[in-house]
Structures are given as structure tokens and as C-alpha cells.
Amino acid sequence: MQSDVAALAAAPGRTWRALAPQWQAAVVRLSLAWLVLFAAFFADWAAMARQWWNISTYNHILLIPPIVGWLVWQRGPELERLTPRAWWPGLVLLGAAAFLWLLGAISGLDLARQAGAVAMLGACVPLLLGVRVSAGLLFPLCYLVFLVPVGEELVKVLQTITADITIALTHLSGIPAVIDGVFIDTPVGLFEVAEACSGVKFLIAMVAFGVLCANVCFLNLRRRAAMLAACVIVPILANGVRAWGTIYAAQIWGVEAAAGFDHIVYGWFFFAIVLALVIAGAWRFFDRPMNAPMIDAQAIAGKAWLGRLEAFDISGRAALAGIALVFAAVWGWAFAAETLEAPMPTRIDLPEVAGWTRSNYTPAIWWEPRGQGASHRLLGRYRDNAGHEVDVFIALYASQGEGSEAGGFGQGALMPKSAWSWQSSGPVMGGDMASGASERLLGNGRIERVAVTLYRTGSLLSGSNAQLKLAVIRDHLLFRARPTAMLILSAEDAPRGAAQHSISAFRASTGPIGPWVDRVIQLR
């Protein structure tokens, strides 16, 4: 038997006619289901493809489809020894994946929509090919998760970590420097660990590589874990060294020369060096024998618990009908939920606040939060007799969805492609402002600003985007239309600490901030 399998694997290609009739029918059904899935959720796949192609953080995902194809091809000779059988519990998996997509669709969370679309692709395999074949394809199916463009959420955390590593190395190298958030002031100039320098794209790509290498090159679980750990730790440390190298070079050759060097090093050239170092370190510990099959079909066929699960089989046509019903259900639910819109007032205004007067909005550097898709937007400045000044931004949304997300990417206090940069997390506010998302911004490297963001929908008052999404999901699942408000209280921070005092004083004058927002948007 082993010689037959080896001969099959060594053949130049496994032809369609060589497949058993059961496999031919199963592959046709799976292909049909995937075509329907791609057509039904084309918008999500197109959005992912645009991110893969246009955003450097996700360029590596272009390699994931051929890698998955290669992983399946590796397992081909052994898979052919198994018999595919449609399995009705696969409908439960498909339903769960479709429900994930639904949650993303009704909340405007693209990540959930895209993850659901990818999960549905994988869920069709156990549904149409059965549990034994799915056991043989378990790793390629799990590896599909890397198709989802995720990781931008780590940017601020990685900026902070990189800045901490950089300042430590800068001090060790004898360069006097002062760190403030992600900005490092040195004798030759001010350096920013910007979003593009956070190293997130290398970390995401290295994790994808590490998972692949751990499966293909290792059998020992501890060695696999060590490989994954290296693919997380090494790129983070290496990115800190790269940032330090730029600062060190600037002290010797000047900022412009160092920036030019950084542009040459930074990119996939840098990633290739890090990747080569990790591979070189792991090479001698590879323990999977050459030409060893990736799976053992005989072992899979002999597992009694898989046999018990396999008893829940159905016909292939019934499985296809179930797929159609699941798709119709989630599409109908999503359409009904997306049409919900809360009634909007004709006009909203910033109210009078006791002890404060409206003043001309004249920031040292223009600052205007982004609230794309809002039905109403207000931006104004208040001033009290003590000289405190607070800028108030309110955006009111009739619904939360594509193009109108209060907590969406690029929305809120940090203006994209502007003079403002994220500096660090801001001071913790007191009272009902404590749940707000506080952040410190820096304009043109000289003007500091503190901004505290809060979302209001129903009884929720929170600066957490996750809590906002959960509240919106709950309302849409219950077909309940509620408006959403985004409130940002901000102040220029000069001297340091003045912004926190100004915002706290304003909050003390408005009373509880939730009811105050409700009055502004005319809900109370």
C-alpha cells in the first residue's frame, strides 16, 4: 500500500478521470457551493482583495490562497484513500459562520463580515466532504483564517512597544533623549514612531509564516510553540532595533541621510532579513522527515470517534439545499436590519452650559474630528471665567452601517492625513467620563491636545468601540432603531495637565454626561 501511495504522489499530476466517482461528485458539489458563496458575498471578497492589494500591511495575504492550494495538494494522495460523505452537522458550522457575517453586516463591522465570509468557505468542506476528509484537511482549513485582513488594531500598542525599545537602546548607546508617548527628542531632532513604523505588517506576516512553518517543518509540539514564539518576539525586537538604528545614524550623518537609509532598509527587504534569521535559527531543529506524508489516511479511517460522527450523513443534494436556505435566511435578516433608521431631529445645537460661554473656535492648529455618514455634526468651543477652554464635537447617526460608523476606522478625534499624530493614551478622567477613550495628540510636533471620546446609544455611555458594536448588534437583532451619538471633549494641553482640568471642569458644569448628550440630540 505504501508503494502505491508513493507512486501516486510521484505521478506528474492526479487527473480528474483518476478520481473515484464519489470524489468527482463531491468536488463538483463543493465547487458549486463555493461559486454560489463567492457570488452571494462578492462585495466582502472584493473588499478583502482591495485590502490585500492596496494596503502594505496585508500584501502577504496574496500568497495565502496558493499556499492553501499547496497544502491541499500535499495531502492529496492520502485524501484519495478516504471516502467523502456529506455531513448534516456541517450545516450548524455553516450557520454559525453565516451568523458571524450577519453580525458584521448589521453592525457595520467589516472584520466580522469578512471573517464570516471566509468561515463559510471553510464550513462547506465538512458539510459536503464529511468529517474524515475534514480531519485530513484540518490545517489548511484553519489556515484560511489568514485570509482575513486583521491586525491594524495592534498599531498603537506596537507603536508604544517600539518606542519603549527604541528609547532604551538610545540611552544604552549614550545618546541623550527624552520620550513622550511615541515621540523621541534627541540632540539632532524629534523622531516619531509613526503608524507605518509600528512593525505591524511584519508581525502579521511573520505569524502567518510561523504557523505554516510549525506545521510543515515540525512534529514536536514544544518546537512548534517555540517557532511561533520566535515569530512574534523577533520581529517586534527587530523593529525596535531598526528604529534605534535610524536615530543613531541621524546623530552621525544627519536626519536626511538617516531617513534615506531607513527608507531603503524599511520594507520587505527588512522583513526578508528577519525571516532569514528566524529560519537560520530554526533550521537545525526541523524534525519532520523529508517526503513524510502530511497526514495518515489509515489512522484517520481507523478512528472510532470519527466513525460515530460520520453516522450523521445526508445526501449531497440535501446539503446543497441547506446551504441555499442558510444564505437566504441571513440575507433576508441583514436586509431587514439594515433598513432600520432612527428618526432624526431637523436640527441640533450646542446648548448653554452654566458658567461657560460659547467662544470663537480658533485652535492653534486646525482640529476637526471625523464623523463620516453622520446626520448631524457640531463643533464648538466653550470658555469659563477661569480661562478654561474646551472644544466639543458631537456627531449624530440615524443608524450604524457601511459608511456611517461612529467607531469605524479613521473616525473620531485623530484626523487622517493631517498635522495631528497620535502621541499616547491620555489621562484617565473621573466620574462618568472614566469610561471614555482618552488619547493624547500632537500637532506639528509642538501643540499637544487631549481628546476624550464617548459613544451614546440607548442607555450605553462608553468610549469602547467594542461595547458600541455589541449594543448596535443587539438593537439590530431585535429590529430596534436607536440613534447613536459620538461625543468628543478636547482641550489643548499647555501647560501639561491643563487639558484634564479644563475637561473635568466642563463635565462638572454639564451634570451627568449621558443625559446631557440626550438633551443635545433631543432624546430627553
Q: In whole angstroms, how far apart are the ends? A: 77 Å
Strand content: 5-15%
Compute the number of structural domains.
3
Report the structural category. alpha+beta
Number of helices: 19
If you average the pLDDT, what whole number results?
90
Regions with pLDDT < 50 over 5+ consecutive residues? 1-13
Transmembrane segments: 23-43, 55-74, 86-106, 118-146, 202-221, 228-253, 265-286, 318-336
GO biological process, one term: proteolysis
Main location: membrane
Keywords: Cell membrane, Hydrolase, Membrane, Protease, Transmembrane, Transmembrane helix
Features:
single chain, 524 residues, alpha+beta, 3 domains, three-stranded antiparallel beta sheet, disordered N terminus
